[in-house]
Write a structure and sequence with these properties.
Layout lengths: L5 E6 L3 E6 L4 E5 H6 L13 H13 L6 E5 L3 E5 L8 E3 H8 L7
Antiparallel strand pairs: 1-2, 2-3, 4-5, 5-6
């Protein structure tokens, strides 16, 4: 369980670096970030392997541009993309799990 707080989020060309207050760092690529969008529209698209593969193929076609990032209430962030879904609010613990390659919903 990643209970540290996010202190810095560095957007790079294809990924972002998460820096936590326990001095740890994680790198998360934009495709994975988008695949794990926590919104009610995207979540069901990961429930079966076939749908997840289709969703991933769709995301790969989108421009992999840096998203705009906004803090949400001291507990998470929202990413705004030039195309595709920008509705998800990613809590810090959720982001940490996704970056660690874990299922954030388990």
């Amino acid at each position: 369980e990643h209970m540290a707080n996010l202190v810095e989020l560095e957007r790079r060309d294809a990924d972002l670096v998460l820096r936590w207050d326990d001095d740890s760092e994680q790198v998360l690529d934009y495709l994975t970030l988008r695949l794990w969008c926590p919104c009610a529209h995207c979540r069901p698209r990961r429930e079966e392997e076939v749908r997840k593969s289709e969703f991933e193929a769709e995301l790969r076609k989108l421009q992999n541009a840096k998203p705009h990032v906004d803090a949400v209430g001291g507990y998470g962030v929202r990413f705004t993309w030039t195309a595709g879904c920008s509705a998800g609010i990613y809590g810090f613990d959720y982001l940490g799990k996704v970056a660690a390659g874990e299922d954030p919903n388990s």
